[in-house]
Design brief:
Helices cover 30% and strands 26% of the residues. It has 222 residues and is of the alpha/beta class. The longest helix has 14 residues, at 76-89. The N and C termini lie far apart (51 Å). Pfam families: TrkA_N.
Amino acid sequence: MHIVIMGCGRVGSTLAHILEDSGHSVAIIDRDPQAFRRLRAGFRGRRVTGVGFDRDVLEEAGIESAAAYVAVSSGDNSNIISARVARETFGVDNVVARIYDSRRAEVYQRLGIPTVATVRWTADQILRRVLPEGAEPLWRDPTGTVTLAEVAYHHGWIGTRTKKVQELAATRVAFVNRMGEALLPKEDMVLQEGDLLHVIAADTDMDRINKVLSAAPEEESH
């Protein structure tokens, strides 16, 4: 399929190469023609100089036949405006915009524009590496409402069925990572030594879940 990218920075150029290697056609837009130097010599996609909310620029990039539009320039406003133009003017359903101000994510989400809040994502990735205990976010929805997290648990939970873990901690076990393999919870699944436990829950509920799991279960759960 054809994909249009606005922003030929590190993220945009990397996406362009990955998508082209996957067999898709790509057009990349940037207002600075020097930015295209980030593209490899053999890049076959279109290079379009201009801004991603200019109709003529978008048409030159092939927006009318695009299956997806990605806005990853350095400006939040430019990304959102161009994503809205792609969707509302040209009817591209699959659009994604990168933003730096995560506080705006909920507003953009209400406009129907999926966003990636890079500051929050980067902070979460760092925290996962420097905090050895507690809930470590792996993913948050753009509004920051729902979190998928790896949660540390007391050794007393070992031998407990994941179904019982869900009941006692009042949460949902998303999956268990066992020796590098992700396993979906089943009726008879039991936590084993070394298992990494991942839950999905409301972000506001994570502190409570972490507190419950950091202590031994209060009742027999084997």
